[in-house]
Structures are given as C-alpha cells and as structure tokens.
C-alpha cells in the first residue's frame, strides 16, 4: 500500500513539473518576442539576413574564384586519354609468300599528358591583375550595398518612431475635439450654441480622425518594410527602443569632403574601375604576342615492329612556340575597347568626385537647416500650448468662440507635429552627412 502511494505521489510530482514547464514556455516565447529592438540590433540583422546583403557576399566569393581561375594558366594541365582505332588496309610487304605488316589493324593507345605554358610575355599576369581589380570592385560594391541597406534601415527605423509619435499627437487632438464636441452638444441642447458651431466641431473632429488614419496606414507600411529589411517574420512584434536624441554631426564641409574623397566607396570604386581599364589595355596589347608551351606525355600503345601487337611503354616531350598570325581583327578591337573603357573610367572618377563634394555640401546645409528648425519649432510648441490653455479658459468664461478654441487646439497639434518632424529630419540629415562623408553606417 505504501509503495502504491509513493508511485502515485511520484507520478503527480512529475505531472506538476511538466505542467509548470509547459506553462512557462509561452511566457518565455512572449518575453523573447517582446525584447526591445534597438537600432544597432536592426542594423546587424539587416546586414546578416537581408537577401541583397547575401547576394553581394556571394558576388565577392564569385570574384575571388575568378582570381583563382585566372592563375590557372601558371600551372600545368594534366589529362589522361585512352583510345582504340581499327585501320584497314595497313602497310605490309611479302617475303617468300609470307606477308609482313608494319602496323596492326587494331590499334590501342593510353597515355597521360602534361602541358604547361612556359612564357607568355605577361599575358597571364595582366589577366590576374584584371581579376584582382574585379574582386576589389566586388568588395566595394558589397560595402555600397550594405551601406545603402543600413541607411534604409535607419530611415525606416526612425520613420516608425516618428509615425508612432505622430499617431499619439493625433490621438491627443482627437480626444480634445471629442471633449469639445460633447460640450458643444450640451450647449447646443441648451440653446447656447448654434448649429454652425456644432457642425464646425464635427468637421474638425472628422478631419483629425482622417489624419490619424493616414498616419496609422503609413506606420503599418513602414513596419512591414522594417520587418523585410531585418529578415523578421511578417507578424513579428516590433518593440523599438530608440529616440531622436543623437550626437550632433560634424559641420565642417571641407574636412568631410576631404574624408569622403579618400574613404567614400563610390570614389574607391571609380579608382578600381580605372585600374581595371588599365589592366584591360595591358592585356589587349599582349594578346598578339607569342607564347612558349612545353608538353610531356607517358603512355603505352602497340604498333612497334617487330611485334606490332605488343603493348609498349613510350614517352614524349617537347617545346613549341605558338605565334598568332591573324585573329580576325580581335586585337585592334580589344585595344579600342580598352582605351574607351579607360576614358570612361576617368570620367566616372571625375563625376564621382564632383558628386561627392556636392553631396557633402548639400547634406551639411540640410543638417544646419534642420537644427535651426528644432529650436524654432520648440518655441512654437511652447507658444501654441500656452495659447490653447488661454483659449480654453476664455471659452469656458464665454470670452472666446468655438472657432477660436478649435483653431488654438489645431495650432497646438500642428506645432507638436512640426517639432517632431524637425527632430526626425535632423536625424535623417545627420545620417546623410555620414553617408556623404564615406561612413558605412555599421552602427
């Protein structure tokens, strides 16, 4: 009896433990799903999970493989072959009525051959240099892709923060208008307000509600974009952790432009393209030069007299000079192509330099403008808030009209949104300065 009771107690304890674990699993999942998503974490997820980032990484891998492929001309090429040939008739001679063959009807041959380019007047070296330039260009394009994805993540991240705050401001305006509408309906029932006052309040409330819906729609769209950039599930919750308070960016356009000319990926890519064009031209000038090729083989075959059916080991080795005589005008066309590519790369470098200087100056001007707007809009919010409070007091005492009150509250919401917009623009312009100056925005 005691053993039975012990077994029952043990089973009950195990069931309680299992139930406690099953009850804690959803809680753990909920806590994990609701973990705050910081901007740094969003940038990391974008760089690791976004398909464009992975595509750029694979392109670098492919370019690196092309470098290895271009070096293959410096190594011997080893191949093996085996064959059978039936020949009839064959050379033969008769002695005293007996036929003597100089080669068999059934011919067998198996061999291993090694062939290697000994000297090609720098053609392979130019090919390798061209492939290396392509690999460097692929790496720089990867940096550009990651930078643009990071900037898109930053913009979307702060857009979500901005729109959530904008929705909150609109909700506050809607609540205030609803309170005004309730008061207006009471005053209209008492005969202290006109039908026009009631309709005006209803129209203002409907307009504020429409603006709130617009902000909510834009917010949902930006959340979809942020999930896609970060590689999150389409229904994953977004608990963002961030603010519009960031470290002020540098305003020295000259220093930023100098840094951009050295570190901006577009400038580095233009320089690599110019190098690639130079290697392409060098390769084109060497295409018509001769090359020296050595070869050696070892194998076994039949056909040797006096026993032409016996398989015998044989070796062969040699060196040959290969001289191109006519290539269908390929060399001249390659030279024209390489020269045109080099001129194009030079123009690309000049355009990248001009664009870099212009973008740095424009981004600094925009940043300066948005910083000044923050101060002015902060003052507007203070003035609009005070005006709204005075309008409410005057309205309650019958010293202001309904339209005065509605205008004051609408001005307050507009001022708050303008201040929020200026802070959002400052953050975006600060990141634009970083992008223009060559920062890859990894954090």
UniProtKB/TrEMBL annotation:
The keyword Transport applies. The keyword Transferase does not apply. Residues 1-29 form the signal peptide. Gene3D superfamilies: Outer membrane efflux proteins (OEP). InterPro entries: CyaE, OMP_efflux, TolC-like. Keywords: Cell outer membrane, Coiled coil, Membrane, Signal, Transmembrane, Transmembrane beta strand, Transport. Residues 335-370 form a coiled coil. One of its GO terms (molecular function) is efflux transmembrane transporter activity. GO terms for cellular component: cell outer membrane; efflux pump complex. It is found in: Cell outer membrane. Belongs to the outer membrane factor (OMF) (TC 1.B.17) family. This is Transporter. It comes from Chlorobaculum limnaeum. The lineage of its organism: Bacteria, Pseudomonadati, Chlorobiota, Chlorobiia, Chlorobiales.
